[in-house]
Design a protein that fits this description.
- Helices cover 59% and strands 12% of the residues.
- With 357 residues, the chain is α+β, with helices and mostly antiparallel strands.
- It folds into three domains: 99 residues, no CATH class; 73 residues, Helix Hairpins, CATH 1.10.287.130; 146 residues, Heat Shock Protein 90, CATH 3.30.565.
- The strands form two sheets. Strands 2-4-5-7-6 form a five-stranded mixed sheet. The protein has a two-stranded antiparallel sheet with strand order 1-3.
- Strand 6 and strand 7 form a beta hairpin.
- The chain is elongated, with a radius of gyration of 34 Å.
Length: 357
């Protein structure tokens, strides 16, 4: 009791330390801001004291106090760099990983201060985004599987009814619309299932040596026949010397090319012409699809490969076809580039690495 009532400097210091140990401090004096404020106040007091000593003629004391202020300032800046700047840079790296799709990534928490609170907030956000992404993927997968059975029945029965020659007029036209819409929904469901397989790691590649020339010629033959009915010309140009082989999954690469061609026809229909070309350039084989339509709007171009992004066009779709293509190409260690051609129309290029011995 007497120690607590001690009016001396030693007693007051003991009481102050006891108060600090109990953390009975106002919010403005806690954590990093409190430490920085204390260092700033001490530095300011040293500078004031140095000025007073210099004015009084005590140059030695003035130099000592000024040097102490400088050393304290340097030490506080080094401390600030260690306790604040470096952890925040680490948090920035974690935030970038989360933005790139690594949901659930966690940053390491070092201390219980403001940076620690920020770390907890970012980790909590990452966990919740990861949970939301998993819930979205599970929901899409569940709904897609549930839709397959009724769509198969609708497609099958509508095609069966179309064989009935007694069905004429508006009734036949209605059945044709039902059949076409059911087919369109079936394609969308398959794209959604592909998307969920990619997201949960169930998407696998059967890698083998792929002859791209043969694959492109097959795609050209398959798709050109379909386009003739819509009065759209598909021209295919391959080098006379052929193309070097690549390592990949031929079925998945064919899926990518067909999807890109489908988009070229859908969005560039007004051009009435689609060009499919391929060439070897350095360590890559470039396969390009170009339409002669209006091209891609400048505000949509940076986002066309994002999942569920449908742009401002009037065409309908799931918004994940190009996203799936992009991930398939990345799994082949390649690149998918989407841009507007200089003379008009959209230009989509698939770059695949040449097979090395």
């Amino acid at each position: 009791m007497e120690e607590n009532r001690d009016p001396s400097l030693r007693g007051r210091a003991a009481r102050l330390l006891s108060r600090l140990r109990r953390e009975n401090l106002p919010d403005t004096l806690r954590g990093l801001k409190g430490a920085w404020l204390a260092a700033s106040c001490v530095c300011a007091l040293l500078v004031v004291a140095a000025l007073i000593c210099a004015h009084s003629g005590a140059s030695g004391w003035a130099a000592a106090l000024g040097g102490g202020a400088v050393l304290l300032l340097l030490a506080s800046n080094l401390w600030f760099r260690e306790r604040v700047t470096s952890p925040i840079l680490g948090l920035g790296d974690t935030a970038r990983r989360i933005a790139e799709g690594s949901y659930g990534s966690l940053a390491e928490k070092f201390r219980d201060d403001e940076v620690g609170s920020l770390t907890e907030a970012i980790n909590d956000m990452s966990v919740k985004i990861g949970a939301a992404s998993r819930a979205q993927t599970e929901f899409v997968s569940s709904v897609s599987h549930e839709l397959r059975t009724p769509l198969t029945a609708i497609t099958g029965w509508s095609e069966t009814l179309l064989y009935d020659e007694a069905l004429q007029g508006d009734s036949r036209r209605g059945i044709e619309i039902i059949s076409n819409e059911a087919s369109r929904l079936t394609v969308m469901v398959e794209e959604l299932l592909e998307f969920t397989r990619l997201r949960d790691g169930r998407f696998t590649l059967n890698l083998e040596t792929v002859d791209l020339c043969a694959l492109i010629e097959e795609v050209d033959f398959t798709y050109s026949e379909l386009l003739r009915h819509d009065d759209i010309q598909l021209s295919c140009s391959l080098p006379d010397e052929g193309l070097p082989p690549v390592t990949g999954d031929s079925a998945r690469l064919k899926q990518v090319l067909l999807n890109i061609l489908d988009n070229a026809v859908k969005y560039g229909r007004s051009g009435r012409r689609v060009e499919l070309t391929a060439a070897a350039e350095g360590e890559y084989v470039r396969v390009s699809v170009r339409d002669h339509g209006p091209g891609i709007a400048a505000e949509d171009l940076p986002h066309v490969k994002e999942r569920f992004y449908k742009g401002r066009g009037k065409e309908r779709g799931s918004g994940i076809g190009l996203a799936v293509c992009d991930e398939i190409v990345e799994l082949h260690s390649g690149r998918l580039k989407i841009e507007n051609a200089e003379s008009g129309g959209a230009l989509v290029t698939v770059e695949l690495p040449v097979k090395t011995q």
